[in-house]
Every structure is written in C-alpha cells, then in structure tokens.
C-alpha cells in the first residue's frame, strides 16, 4: 500500500504510505521502452502507471505455473504486464526519458531463461482499479476512451492520455497473451491518507474506512478480471497483493499510532486472504488466477526495499527485484540471477536457457557483438562445416542451411543470398588456431532464432 505525496516530513510520508499506492508526480514519470531486442524479440512499453502493492506472503503453489516456455522464435510466450506505477517500474526521481527497470522488466528476463518470449507493458501512472476496469471494458467493446473518461484526474499524469487511448492495442495484446501479470489497487486507498492527515482517526473508524475501500476495490478488480477472461479464457493471470511501506511506530517515526498500525497490518493480511479466496472462486470456474505475496518480503524491511527514507514509498531497485522474485517463484518455481562476469568477458550468452561456457568468449567490436560460431552451434545442436579454400562456414539446423564467408557482407540461407550489415571474421584463439565469429544479428536473420540483449544483466538470450 503506498502513496507518493512528497512532503519534507518523513512521518507524513509514511502515513501516506499507508495508502497502498504511490501516485507519481504528474509531470515526472514516464519511461520509454528499453531497446532489448536484437531481432525477433520485442519489448513494448505501452504505458506508465502508478500503483501500490504491498507485498504479503507469496502464495506457495503445488507446482509452478510454467516450467519451460512452450514457445519458439516464431511463436514466443506472450507476456502482458498490466497495472499501475509498479508495473511501470517507477523509482524515485525517474524522468520522462528514463528507461525503467522494474519488476516486469526483470520478469521478462526470467521468461527468456525459459524460452522465446515477448513483453508488452501497459503500466499507467495514477491508475486505480475502477480506471482499469473502465479501460478494459472500452477495449473489449472496441471503443476509444480518454483518460478522463476512464478515471477522473488521470490525464494529469505524463503521457497517460495517449496510453489510455490505445484500446485497440490493449485488446489485441490481451487476446493474444499467454501470461498476464498485474499490480493494481494502491491508488484506491488514498482516501485513508486524507483522513489520517486531516484529523484523528480512531482504530474503529480506520477499520470501517479500510473495509469500505477494500469492498470497492474487489468489485472493480473482479470486473477487470471478468473482462480479461471474456477476451481470453485460457490466459494465466498472476496478480500481486499489496505491501505496507509504513514502518512500525517507534521513538523516531510515529506516522501512525500503534493502534492504527495494527489495523493497517491486519488490513493487508485480510486483503491477501480475500484475494486468495478470489483465486479459489476463479479456479472453480476454470480460470487460471494466482496471487503473488509481495507483502511478507517487505514487512520490516521498508527502509531497505522502498525509498521511504527519501520521502517516496515506491520500491527501489532492491524492492523491484524482490517483487520479480515473488512473481518468478510463482510462475516458474525459481528466480535465476546472472553470475558475475569473468574478467575480459563482455557479456553472458544464454542459449536455450544454458549459459555458453565454451573456450571462446564473445567479442564486442564497434558496438557490434560477435559470437564464436562453433560454440553457439554446439549449444544449439547445429552442425558446422568449414571450407578453408573459400573461407566459408556452413551451419545446418532445423532444416536450414546457412553459409557465411569471412569478410563478406552477405550470407546464404538455403541458397538465397541475404545482406549482412557486418561480416563474419576470424579471431585468433591460439598460436596456430582461429575461430569464426558471427555477428549476433546473423543468428536471428539467418537461422531464425530469437536473439535478445538485456543490458541491465549484460546477457544475450538465444532461443529457438
């Protein structure tokens, strides 16, 4: 549960945090899509948003929702991130031209460890559950809608107006999605902050206010889920609960009383239980809904996982990593981290979920990444032949025959000549030996693999 009122007094900010959602300042938070794809893979940043999500305990499942993506470069796992500023990946001080790296971005990387995947992000700043419901309903009906029609006051957030108008894109993405992740609800609880700020609120009053807001949130959330399942009955939806970033009252910080804090803690726990009940209700109808607990990992670690110390209750980088871990544990049963790169190695190469560990390291020249052809071919199960007379390497994989001639700005794919921006070259790997190095783009263009570069973790993913 979080809010984003940036006041100078930490106590007041912590009280705002009670509210389940951070509202990013209207003129500040919009991120552009990271350029993560070397070829077939795509990352679409469809919007920005504010949301509050106070993690509670992640719901353990009997088994992961997914193990290995049943996907290929021609049919990647379609992931849609939907919701508020947590979906955007907003962090304190993020500007309009910043590239966010939130939980959805990290979760996209986890998907790539399991196979070909594409992510479309529909995070929207300031979005409440009723605004999401209205937006989804308009999309389902094929109607355009303005930000103000979706939710009063929503248009004040940077670029939100244009995002909400993208109802056609939203409908298409939801209809084609295999997996939808959601964070929504924090902004719904802002009235609690207004009450706590304006007057003394007894625990009994706070309990009643919170219960009324939860009822309204559940109604809007259910409407959103129903709309999504009408569009795509077979999709898997993974929804986060809410975390409470306000620290427990102590001698230094007393944003709320002990009694109010107890009410808020209980409210977070009760909301989690109600979401679990909602999960059961949808399971009974044959729908795939899972609740992710992000409140438990944040409890007692508010200063470590949010920017509350600086007056903002959004997660920091550590907080977003925790959220991504909770989602990944629910979806795949594990969260995988990139190891530290050895000295002299510019990036990780992950082929079909396994890190390339051949004797030849990748090379970066003139902002172009080159990979050792034989090591990659072995990892992909492709065969390689070398014609020393013509200095031509030929790979055979999945019914394709691709030839590269050293220094040539063309390649042959099943006999057809195609252009190459950067040619293959020979890299000396020993006193008397050399290895053929291919430009990264050749793997996707020639062999049809999905090749995706993720700068935050210095990793290239190659998936069939």
From TrEMBL:
InterPro entries: Cu_amine_oxidase-like_N (IPR012854), Ester_Hydrolysis_Enzymes (IPR051532), GDSL (IPR001087), Mao_N_sf (IPR036582), SGNH_hydro_sf (IPR036514). Residues 1-29 form the signal peptide. It comes from Paenibacillus phyllosphaerae. Residues 351-462 form the Copper amine oxidase-like N-terminal domain. GO terms for molecular function: phosphatidylcholine lysophospholipase activity. It comes from the Bacteria. Keywords: Signal. This is Lysophospholipase L1-like esterase.
């Amino acid at each position: 549960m979080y809010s984003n009122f940036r006041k100078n007094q930490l106590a007041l900010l912590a009280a705002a945090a009670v509210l389940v959602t951070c509202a990013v300042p209207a003129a500040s938070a919009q991120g552009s899509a990271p350029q993560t794809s070397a070829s077939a893979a795509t990352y679409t940043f469809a919007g920005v948003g504010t949301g509050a999500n106070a993690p509670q305990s992640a719901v353990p499942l009997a088994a992961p929702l997914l193990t290995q993506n049943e996907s290929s470069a021609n049919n990647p796992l379609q992931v849609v991130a939907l919701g508020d500023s947590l979906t955007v990946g907003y962090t304190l001080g993020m500007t309009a031209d910043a590239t966010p790296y939130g939980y959805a971005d990290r979760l996209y990387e986890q998907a790539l460890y399991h196979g070909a995947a594409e992510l479309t992000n529909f995070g929207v700043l300031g979005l409440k559950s009723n605004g999401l419901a209205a937006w989804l309903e308009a999309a389902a009906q094929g109607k355009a809608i303005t930000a103000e029609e979706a939710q009063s006051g929503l248009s004040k957030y940077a670029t939100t107006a244009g995002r909400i108008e993208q109802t056609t894109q939203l409908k298409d993405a939801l209809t084609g999605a295999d997996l939808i992740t959601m964070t929504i609800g924090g902004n719904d609880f802002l009235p609690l902050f207004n009450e706590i700020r304006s007057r003394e609120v007894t625990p009994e009053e706070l309990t009643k206010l919170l219960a009324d807001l939860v009822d309204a949130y559940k109604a809007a959330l259910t409407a959103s889920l129903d709309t999504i399942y009408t569009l795509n009955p077979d999709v898997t939806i993974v929804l986060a609960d809410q975390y409470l970033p306000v620290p427990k009252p102590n001698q230094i910080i007393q944003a709320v009383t002990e009694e109010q804090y107890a009410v808020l803690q209980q409210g977070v726990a009760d909301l989690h239980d109600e979401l679990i009940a909602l999960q059961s209700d949808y399971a009974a109808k044959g729908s795939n809904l899972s609740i992710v607990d992000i409140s438990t990992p944040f409890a007692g670690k508010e200063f470590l996982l949010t920017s509350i110390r600086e007056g903002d209750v959004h997660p920091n980088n550590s907080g977003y990593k925790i959220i991504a871990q909770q989602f990944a544990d629910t979806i795949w049963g594990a969260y995988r981290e990139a190891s530290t790169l050895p000295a002299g190695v510019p990036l990780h190469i992950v082929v079909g979920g396994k890190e390339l560990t051949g004797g030849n390291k990748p090379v970066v020249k003139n902002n172009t990444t080159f990979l050792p052809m034989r090591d990659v071919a072995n990892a992909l199960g492709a065969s390689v032949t070398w014609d020393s007379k013509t200095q031509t390497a030929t790979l055979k994989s999945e019914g394709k025959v691709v030839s590269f001639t050293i220094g040539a700005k063309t390649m042959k794919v099943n006999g057809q000549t195609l252009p190459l921006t950067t040619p293959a070259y020979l890299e000396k790997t020993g006193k008397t030996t050399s290895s053929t190095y291919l430009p990264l783009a050749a793997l996707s263009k020639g062999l049809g693999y999905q090749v995706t570069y993720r700068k935050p973790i210095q990793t290239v993913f190659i998936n069939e």
